[in-house]
Amino acid sequence: MDNQTIQLKVKQRLNKLSSNDYDNIETWQIAEAFNKAQVEWSRRQLHGGNIYKEGDEYSKRRIDDMQTLLRELELNGIQNDDYFETTNFPVGEYLEFKRVTAEAKDECCPEPRVMNVYLSEEANVNLIKRDPLKNPSFLWAETFCTVLDNKIRIYKNKDFTIINPILTYYKRPTYLEFAGIVNPYTGVTPAADVESDFKDDVIELIIDETAAILAGDYSEFAQSQRDQQAAERSN
Fold first, then answer.
1. Which of 72, 105, 173, 177 could disulfide-link 38, Cβ–Cβ 3.0 to 4.6 Å?
2. Could you list the pLDDT tens digit for every one of the 235 residues in the chain?
């Protein structure tokens, strides 16, 4: 869906299109509200905070709606005695962790072996390393990772080395930008429209949420509630 259609639909959802009551809403305000709505909607779907309590990949619809945000990143890093620590991370666009895949090799088995890497809490690192059924094992092709300070640590022992790690993650939705309108986040005026990542049916839901945000900003609480309910009913 192109940006001009989104702008038109937002004003229509506010129910003030013909009266021009909302002509004082700037285009950058529509973009800001739409971008806020995108992030809120995405987090709600991933967490299962929607009315159907469907979280990340819980149903075909969730897979369909959110797959446009999935990305892969080859990880670089440093090998320590206890873990492989990454030196790159998608800081600017990172939204939520999905998984880490990696391979390993040792002196006796130079051919890379695919490892099962489980995400764990940083608080439980020492407990997992002490547990013979959970600690890193090349024999069982299992290990775990943690995330801290925009770094990923994939744990290992002195018997093997981690190679070819890949992070799969959900990125933040691309911010909507209108050509010739100053981006309030960067202060830059784009020469061309920047469109949403989502397909048109999802954008329709986000438009309702955008209208709800703008109506709330203008103290139109009944309209805000109506638009929010419309977004959730169609979800």
1. 173
2. 888 898 888 887 776 555 555 557 888 889 999 999 999 999 989 987 777 677 788 889 889 999 999 999 999 999 998 999 999 999 989 999 999 999 999 888 778 999 999 999 999 999 999 998 889 999 899 999 999 999 999 999 988 999 999 999 999 999 999 999 988 778 888 999 999 999 999 999 999 899 888 888 776 655 556 556 655 655 6
Total-model pTM? 0.86
| Whole-number Å distance between alpha carbons of 140 and 124 | 20
**CA separation, residue 197 to residues 14, 107, 170, 230 (Å):** 24, 45, 12, 21
